[in-house]
Amino acid sequence: MDVEHGVERPSAWLVHNADLLPRGGRLLDVACGRGRHALWLAVQGYEVTAIDRSAEAIARVKEAATRLGLTITTEVVDLETDPPPSLGSQIYDAVVVFNYLHRPLMPAIREAVKIGGSIFYE
Question: What is the mean pLDDT of residues 39-47?
């Protein structure tokens, strides 16, 4: 594990393709885990919302954001309910999802992205 400031580094794929994200946009990190992508995106100047079903993971994201002087909106959300939760309607410039797949959530992810926005899925 490559760690900087106590935070795991983001996916190399995200870093390499970050120029495809809208500058300074509003982003949603789905199933954020410990927040490595949410934290990196916040450092890059994005307005980030990070969601995960683990209250422990969200607490770690909040603690890391505070320690690094970043503002990240966090929420504990069970992403595998039936029906899937709403993630909002056309409110994010981009949604990022890494190392998580729950196919029934796909329509909610698509709905959360503004027209012309992006979905980054690895």
Answer: 96
